[in-house]
Design goal:
heterodimer; A: 751 residues; alpha+beta; 6-stranded mixed β-sheet; B: 161 residues; 5-stranded mixed β-sheet
Chain lengths: 751, 161
């Protein structure tokens, strides 16, 4: 197993550059009395489970418990949540828990922040780790006392033997416990919810105080001895290659140590977020790289992307909508006959733009090539495993020679599922022969993203006499290359209302795109919810139906669909229409939906529901517009069902509120424009993120259905976009079919 | 050029070109990396520090313009009464998600409260609008400012509107 190998690998501490082996480090720790306890076993008899427990749990003689957080922390709170799960089962006082970020290491299994999967994949395994460690501590105490383990109990870091009144602290037992074998994780008994002492408690982020003390936790803060700073300039037009650059002039500039051209990894690198052609400028101060960048002149080769612009996309989409779709995604029943026989037909076209992730911490990475040829990476990444693979491919070395330190991440939103910055830093470090911190400036960050793809939906639906949809068609115009749909640009065949309307057709046509796209917080949903849930609102109004009642009728009585295939070997919950109903009814009740007709003229309420990442979220927005047509959001209500247990209410409400406001900002302001193959926007003046005065009051309600807990980074985002547009329709009578919302179209005088 | 600047109450000597923004002197010369780079054009507020108590964007403040002004950064803000209260409120309400903007938020909030100990929602909007939170923790930022001020934290704006 790879653990033994990695345990022998050299490690270098981030702060000091001390080069020692992990084994030596552990031995040293024990020798100086101290520090390590339930620790890595060295004996040949250590099992994989022993190593796993040791990797997660360390207990010092003074009772301080150090737990490992396996996944990256991007603001979604996993560095707090996952250790809470271990600590509760371990039965320790949270005040005595310290948390350390894991390195990338196969012992932990998948280590990533994506898909809102941190909770569903780790909810049980992390509790099992804590329970197994607790069992080992009990066994150690029982042996010490010569009593059966079943007679022992634990409470807050102490093992007790009630019959004799004896106690031993975990700190006193740790060394003995470490010599025992860990139990089979599947065999441990977990607490029942009424026994939780940490799960469910409002628990602040484990790093928050350090952030507010200004400690260097983020990728951008990494500092190594003999480190240089780098900037890497790529073709503003996607896919351009370096023909020539004024390197000599740049190298002669004050503070500049070097400047050189790197060659990309082929024609597809730009859309695949690998290493692309560029010019690296190296200086002893990052500011000097920026001054040199001003003087940099590069001739870029023309690329296919230069023919591509947002304006041209819109023309192509209009043309494609008149033609037969390129491909069928799904067909149910007999759509044409159902449309012909419908009591009423409704058609509408929706469009949304490309978006950038705009993490507030720009992309960056620090890299060092060690003397033994190994590569050490410090990166704010959501996805370190594929990052190491990318570095290995780019450098042509074995992935086992790459060590990845996961720094705190200044915002993910899906941007850092790609690791292009990692490949750049590693290549620059190798070329340079010394440690380097690559830091993108903001224009580079906005202009070299893997964008949320834009899209166009051409809907037609048929309603029966009661206003129920009996036919539904979407001709989706999306983006791709050579017949393949671009990343995160697809329409899933099972997207609602597929399966709930008898006659249905989803088809797509592709516009050629040579710019990179990728997942952004709630990929698919962040765009599709706007189009589908707005059009559903149109259908409700066209059929004279209450949008809430129409949804309840469409989803029908409570029923559970067949379970989906496991994700990463973990069972995931099936779709349950009872949970849809639950959040719809809850949000209606909390928002006063039934009384919305009593709102003052010019104020409206809109409703939307979206199921994503196993979460059920219904939202109501109350809004009006001012004289210039600018939307004013009065309040937003959300009802969220992510299962029976909110692990950390502190993080959960924050995630839901943040996701809702994130979506609101997209609806109000955000768009990326492509012009002749390059992105026009380059900073926050043109890319208008939501600000304080635009953040309305929010109410988030969790519906505790009896299901295992699932993730919350993403599910609360999509419904707010259509809920807002639906509210604006009630307020103004004007239907928003293009994002971002154009106030001109909502002005009271506008036709 | 060689400059002497007053940072968090300590006189520091730095070597930097006159046009170097204060941000990069703090981060890369003095290793005070709590102050963050976000945009470079004073559009996001991640680099907010105090110059003689006024919140400024360090990314567009050339070091040559600092002179003898007292610079306070996130590393030093806890030494002031309002800085301490603001940081405590931030932790009590668990404001941060990724945390990258929060140094700037705390600096802006502290400057607000030092001048206006009982801010209204409108005052909070005006003082905090220059600080982007990409995670959109605005709900808790607003509440934490009120908590630091000893005001009720409930968001009553909908009732008023």
């Amino acid at each position: 197993m790879t653990r033994e190998k990695s345990a022998e690998d050299p490690v270098v501490s981030a702060s000091g550059g001390l080069r020692i082996s992990r084994r030596a480090f552990l031995a040293t720790g024990l020798a100086v009395g101290g520090g390590l306890l339930l620790t890595l076993r060295f004996s040949e008899t250590a099992s994989a489970q022993d190593a796993l427990i040791a990797a997660y749990v360390k207990i010092a003689p003074d009772g301080i418990v150090t737990l490992t957080a396996k996944n990256p922390e991007i603001g979604q709170g996993m560095k707090t949540t996952l250790p809470m799960l271990i600590a509760d089962e371990l039965d320790v006082d949270w005040q005595n828990v310290r948390v350390e970020q894991a390195m990338l290491d196969p012992i932990y299994g998948p280590q990533f922040a994506g898909g809102s999967l941190g909770t569903p994949l780790n909810w049980i395994p992390m509790q099992q780790v804590g329970a197994a460690a607790r069992q080992m501590l009990i066994s150690a105490a029982a042996r010490t006392w010569g009593v059966p383990p079943a007679q022992c109990m634990t409470r807050q870091g102490v093992v007790r033997h009630p019959q004799s009144g004896r106690t031993l602290t975990y700190g006193a037992l740790a060394e003995k416990a470490a010599a025992l074998h860990a139990p089979d994780l599947a065999s441990v008994t977990l607490k029942s919810p009424n026994e939780y002492t940490i799960i469910g408690k409002f628990t602040g982020g484990v790093d928050s105080a350090r952030v507010l003390d200004g400690e260097p936790l983020f990728g951008i803060d990494v500092s190594l001895p003999q480190m240089s700073y780098a900037v890497y300039e790529k073709s503003p037009v996607f896919g351009g290659r370096v023909v020539r650059a004024n390197l000599e002039e740049i190298k002669a500039m004050p503070g500049v140590r070097d400047a050189f051209i790197l060659r990309g990894a082929g024609a597809d690198a730009a859309v695949k977020m690998g290493l692309v052609d560029g010019v690296a400028i190296i200086a002893d101060k990052w500011w000097d790289t920026q001054k040199a960048l001003q003087k940099l002149r590069v001739e870029w080769s023309p690329s296919a992307a230069r023919a591509q612009s947002t304006a041209a996309f819109e023309q192509q989409a209009t043309q494609l909508a008149r033609e037969a779709p390129h491909a069928l995604i799904r067909r149910d029943g007999n759509l044409d006959a159902a449309l012909r026989g419908a009591h009423r037909r409704v058609s509408a076209s929706y469009a949304y733009p490309f978006l950038a992730h705009a993490t507030l911490e720009p992309q960056n990475c620090t890299a060092r090539i060690n003397r033994d040829g190994s590569v050490e990476i410090w990166a704010p990444t959501q996805n370190p495993g594929p990052g190491a693979q990318l570095v290995a491919r780019t450098l042509g070395i074995d992935a086992a020679k790459i060590r990845v330190h996961m720094t705190r991440v200044g915002g993910g939103f899906g941007r850092r599922l790609n690791n292009d910055y990692m490949a750049e830093a590693a290549m620059i470090a190798r070329w340079l022969g010394r440690p380097v911190k690559l830091l993108w400036n903001r224009p580079q960050d906005i202009q070299h993203d893997a964008y949320r793809p834009g899209g166009f939906h051409h809907f037609t639906a048929g309603l029966d006499a009661a206003g129920n949809p009996v036919a539904f068609r979407d001709h989706f115009i999306t983006f791709g290359r050579s017949g393949h749909v671009a990343a995160a640009a697809d329409l899933p065949a099972d997207h609602f209302p597929a399966g709930f309307v008898p006659n249905l057709e989803y088809a797509q046509s592709l516009i050629q795109l040579d710019a990179p796209t990728g997942p952004m917080r709630n990929p698919g949903g962040n765009a599709l919810a706007f189009a589908f849930e707005s059009f559903l609102d149109e259908l409700a109004h066209a059929g004279g139906r209450d949008p809430l009642e129409l949804r309840l009728e469409l989803y029908g009585p409570p029923r559970v669909f067949p379970p989906p295939p496991p994700r990463f070997g973990v069972k995931v919950p099936p779709f349950d229409t009872g949970r849809v109903r639950g959040v719809l009814e809850l949000v209606a009740q909390k928002s006063g939906w039934a009384q919305r007709q009593a709102l003052p003229s010019g104020t409206g309420m809109g409703l939307a529901f979206y199921y994503s990442h196993f979460g059920y979220v219904a939202e109501v927005v109350k809004a009006s517009v001012d004289r210039d047509g600018v939307p004013k959001v009065h309040k937003i209500w959300a009802a969220v069902d992510i299962g029976r247990q909110i692990i950390n209410p502190a993080g959960a409400y924050n995630q839901a509120q943040g996701a809702i406001l994130d979506g609101l900002g997209q609806a109000l302001h955000l768009f990326i424009t492509l012009e002749n193959g390059r992105v026009v926007q380059n900073n926050f003046d043109a890319y208008r993120l939501l600000r304080m005065h635009e953040a309305p009051p929010l109410e988030v309600h969790f519906l505790r259905s009896n299901n295992d807990p699932t993730g919350l980074g993403e599910p609360a985002l999509p419904p707010v976009l259509p809920a807002l547009c639906n509210a604006l329709f009630m307020a103004t009578g004007k239907r928003i079919r293009t994002l971002p919302i154009d106030p001109q179209a909502l002005r009271p005088s506008a036709a | 050029m060689r400059l002497s600047i007053l940072v968090n109450g300590i006189q520091r000597t730095v070597e930097a070109d006159a046009d170097t923004p204060l941000l990069w002197v703090l981060r890369d010369e003095l290793h005070l990396s709590g102050t963050k780079y976000g945009c470079g054009i004073a559009a996001c507020g991640a680099c907010t520090v105090h110059l003689n108590g006024e919140p400024v964007r360090a990314c567009v403040t050339p070091i040559s313009a600092v002179g003898s002004a007292a610079i306070v950064t996130i590393e030093g803000i806890g030494a002031s009464e309002w800085g301490r209260k603001v940081k405590s409120a931030w932790l009590e309400l668990d404001v941060m998600q990724c945390g990258y903007c929060q140094a700037g938020q705390v600096m802006s909030a502290t400057a607000l409260l030092a001048k206006n100990p009982r801010p209204t929602d409108q005052d909070i909007d005006a003082a905090m609008n220059g600080n982007i939170c990409r995670c959109c923790t605005y709900t808790r930022i607003r509440a934490a400012i009120k908590q630091a001020a000893g005001l009720p934290t409930a968001d009553t704006r909908e009732v008023q509107s």
